[in-house]
Design brief:
The chain is α/β, with parallel strands linked by helices. It is 29% helix and 30% strand.
């Protein structure tokens, strides 16, 4: 059987695309195959992002904040967001929401097999698993099959362990989220904590690093325990949920489509839609999905080339990352300067690829010229 669309991987990118396809009165008639080795039924991650309006997944937003704080050893800044809201979606809520919605359609087939190869010719895309071969008009791939080489010269790893903790007594201000707290040891590299309270007694506390390699598992737990005790001043709490993740922050080129394989469209991290300098992914996936939908609805190829503005934002992003990789400045120094000098909404607009030229000019003027100029010129002529 030939499918119209094959979605390889049922994580954030794959299920976001599936949900959008099924929302459309014409595209939901297409035969869609979703392939993944596992059923998504674990609360394996939490996505946080900011947006101005209610998004397509607004109904499963677990919590949102209009007040955030940035903390470092030099200064503290609590700020109210004017245009944006900072939102949290739990992985299990997202998976269940999309999978439950999918049950309404007999045009969708799920296949739980391990993908070994993905290929295409001029007419079809093909996915080979450990059990069968599947063919479709297009394959939307979020697996790492076509990922570029990641090494210490071109990449950092964003790795984190998050604990959802619950206290007996109210200790958190649920209206204020800690976006970054750099008042922790920087001995491994750029290191900070998130604290996102969902009630007066429950919060997600996450230990996050941008470094060349992962830590011993015991070290994440030791740092979380230390922070909860010494900084949050909490002695008695219950560990409700744990999550661990690794996100590539890379100068390497993640192709939108593999070379000479025009029927394959890389989505999510595989397509370069993870923000290289910060690791944020969720909203960039939604923006890519919107562009794919517009192309499919108008009969155009969903293989998307970067716009001029897209190339500019990619250059900004890789410049910031190169400054960190080359150790011209630490992440703590970069984000501290930006949060100290810039209006928070303008900085979030920049980090979300939604800023204006004037806002970008102010941001460029806020950081030291030499390190950013040298990294910027290097990335301008780079062939990554």
């Amino acid at each position: 059987m030939k499918y119209d669309y094959i979605i390889a991987g049922s994580g954030c990118a794959g299920l976001s695309l599936l949900y959008n396809l099924l929302q459309d009165s014409e595209l939901n008639k297409k035969k869609i195959l979703v392939i993944d080795k596992d059923i998504k039924q674990k609360n394996d991650r939490t996505w946080c992002f900011w947006e101005k309006e209610a998004g397509i997944f607004e109904s499963i937003v677990h919590r949102e904040w209009k007040t955030l704080e940035f903390l470092t050893t030099d200064f503290e800044k609590k700020f109210d967001l004017e245009e944006y809201s900072y939102k949290m979606i739990r992985g299990i809520d997202f998976y269940q929401f999309v999978l439950d919605f999918t049950k309404k359609f007999d045009t969708v087939t799920f296949c739980y097999e391990s993908i070994s190869a993905i290929d295409s010719d001029s007419n079809n895309g093909t996915v080979i698993t450990d059990k069968a071969t599947y063919t479709g008009d297009f394959v939307f791939n979020s697996t790492p099959i076509f990922n570029p080489e990641i090494n210490i010269k071109n990449s950092l790893l964003q790795h984190f362990e998050g604990w959802e903790i619950e206290t007996k007594e109210p200790v958190f201000d649920s209206k204020v989220g800690t976006l970054m707290d750099f008042r922790v040891s920087q001995k491994y590299g750029t290191t900070f904590m998130y604290v996102l309270p969902t009630s007066s007694t429950i919060a997600l506390v996450e230990y996050t690093l941008f470094t060349e390699k992962l830590l011993n598992k015991k070290e994440y737990k030791a740092e979380l325990k230390k922070y909860i005790k010494e900084v949050l001043k909490i002695e008695d709490y219950e560990l409700v949920h744990e999550e661990f993740g690794v996100i590539p922050m890379s100068l390497a080129k993640f192709e939108r489509s593999p070379k000479n394989k025009e029927r394959i469209v890389n989505i999510g991290t595989a397509g370069g839609y993870t923000k290289a300098s910060s690791g944020y992914t969720f909203q960039f996936v939604q923006k890519q999905t919107k562009l794919i939908m517009e192309a499919l609805k108008t009969g155009k190829t969903p293989n998307l080339n970067l716009s001029f503005r897209g190339k500019m934002f990619e250059w900004y992003d890789k410049t910031v990352l190169d400054v960190m990789i080359s150790e011209k400045m630490t992440g703590k120094e970069i984000f501290s300067i930006m949060f100290k000098k810039l209006p928070p909404d303008e900085l979030l607009a920049f980090l979300g690829n939604e800023s204006s030229f004037w806002q970008e000019f102010k941001i460029m003027n806020s950081v030291p010229i030499i390190p950013f100029m040298t990294s910027g010129m290097k990335q301008l002529f780079s062939k990554h």
